[in-house]
Amino acid sequence: MKVNINKLSVDMEVKQRGVEFRVYDNQGNFKGDMYVVSSGLIWCKGRIKKENGIKVSWDEFMEWMEN
Question: Which superkingdom (predicted)?
Fold first, then answer.
C-alpha cells in the first residue's frame, strides 16, 4: 500500500477535522481515505464522503490492536 498525507498541520492538537491520509494500492489505484480525528478513526472506502465513512472510537481501535 501507498499512504499519502493529504493535509498536514504541524505541532497542533488533532481536533474534529483531523488529519486525512489518502491510501493507494501498489499499482497506484485509489483505495480510500483514512481520517484521524479527536474521537477516533474514520475509514472512507473509495470516494465515500467523511460523514458516511466507517467510524471507530479510540477505545475500539485500542481494543482491536491489543487483542
Answer: Bacteria
